[in-house]
Structure formats: structure tokens, C-alpha cells
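We emphasize that the prediction below concerns an isolated chain of 157 residues; any contacts that depend on oligomerization or on bound cofactors are therefore not represented. The input was used exactly as deposited, without trimming of termini.
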Amino acid sequence: MRVVLELVFTLAIPCGIAYLFVRRSRERDRNSPLRHDIAAGASYRVPLHRASVLGTGGLGGTRGVWISLRGPKRLTVSADAFMVSAPQALREYVFTGRDSSIAISRSPSRIVDQDWIVITRQDGDRQLRLAITADNLPQVWQALAGTGVTLAPAVGR
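Result of the prediction step, given as a C-alpha cell string:
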């Protein structure tokens, strides 16, 4: 019995890593056409100071916790879509304006008195929430609003 448990635990780690890799690859493949359209028709690009994604649960028990994306982050906006990318973390979040909403918030970081733009969209059966901040937040807001997003009331104040 002990040998079986050791085998199960030994196989669980590589299977978990493989699952995460396949999930991320599928997400990139699904977003590929829109990602290329955004890059080709970009009307606004700006580096972001910080970006955080709201955890939805999983292995680390991250439900309801804002998880900071590592490394340099960038916002790229085109006519009707936008993308937040964090190349060092191998993450790209692609949004269409018509399927997303934005709101001003302070909830991702209560330590520093700083405004954030919280971007929300449905991602299958769950909700994706991403918070971003930059030096020129009013310009970022205007660029995002130009994509046709729904403007939501301020949250977390």
C-alpha cells in the first residue's frame, strides 16, 4: 500500500505540471488570432507598473487573493480589443471591448494609496479579473474606454 501511495504522489506532480502547461497552451492558441490583430493594429501601448490577477482557487488556495504578475508588464490597445502581457511570467490576457468591463478600484493593494483599473470578463464558466496601474491612469482609462468596454462604477473605495 505504501508503494502505491508513493507512486501516486510521484506521478501527481508531473501530471499537474503537464496539465498547467496544456491549459496555458490552449489559452494561447485560442487567443492567437485576436492577439495578432491587437499587435498589428495597436493604437496605444504603455508599460504598466503593476498588474495582478484575482485568484480563483486551485492548488495554492488562491481564491479571492490578488496575485501579482512578475516582470515587466505592458498594455497594448487596438480599436476594439486589448491585451495585458507579462512575458517573464509567460502570460497574456486578451480582452475584447464588447465582452469586458472596467472600473476604478483600490482593492488590489490597500497598503499604498493607489488607484487601479480592474478589468473583468467571463472566461468560460468563471470570471477573470485583472487589475492594472500605471503613471498615466486617466489616459489608460480613455484608451480602454475607446475599445467599447462597459464602464462600471468604482469598487472597493
